[in-house]
Amino acid sequence: MFDYENREYEDVDFGSQQLRDGELTNCTFVRCRFVYGSLEEILTRGCRFTDCNFHGAALNGSIHIESAFENCTFTEANLFAAKFDRCKMTGSDFAGAKLDGFTIVQGDWSYTNLRLARLDRQDLRGARFFEADLSESSLQKADLRGADLTRCILDKAKLKGADLRDAVLDGVNFKALDVQQVRMDREQAVLFMRSYGAKVD
After folding, report:
1. Of the candidates 138, 47, 32, the residue with the CA atom closest to the CA atom of residue 87
2. Angstrom distances, CA of residue 133 to CA of 21, 157, 180
3. Which pLDDT tens digit goes with each residue over 16-27?
4. How far apart are the C-alpha atoms of 190 and 184, rounded to whole Å?
5. Chain centroid to CA 200: how far?
6. pLDDT (tens digit, 9 = 90+) per residue, 158-181?
7. Residue 115: its pLDDT value, please?
């Protein structure tokens, strides 16, 4: 186990290093590579990762608190039971990542690729998904109250039982949504009806 604080790394390859069970506090990583790295149960607090590559990395059981992962690649990474608490994830790509048991607590997930993600029953209240790609994702019974879904792509997403009340839905393609058993507030219901050409007084 290791404990790093206030360190800075640039263009470093950590893929072959054993980083599991470690703690990182206020560290900065720029263009670093963690490809197929071992980061199980790692804890980060207030760290910043910019343009880093986590392709195929093992991050299962990891916890991240108020850290930033900007424009990072998590393709095919193992994020089973990982938790991101109030993190900034803008522009990151999770294509093919294992997200079972994955937990999101608020944070900024704008411009992320979360296609096919399984986020059923997640408490996503207040999270920001501005222009995120959540197409074909599963959000069944998810709590999205107050979330920012502005121009979010939700084509073929499974929303059965989800709660969208007070969520920002500006620019969302309502015609691509299956709203069966979805909870909406009055304003959202009016927007939905108008998208189908209804005149609501």
Report:
1. 47
2. 31, 10, 21
3. 888 899 999 999
4. 10
5. 35
6. 999 999 999 999 999 888 888 889
7. 95
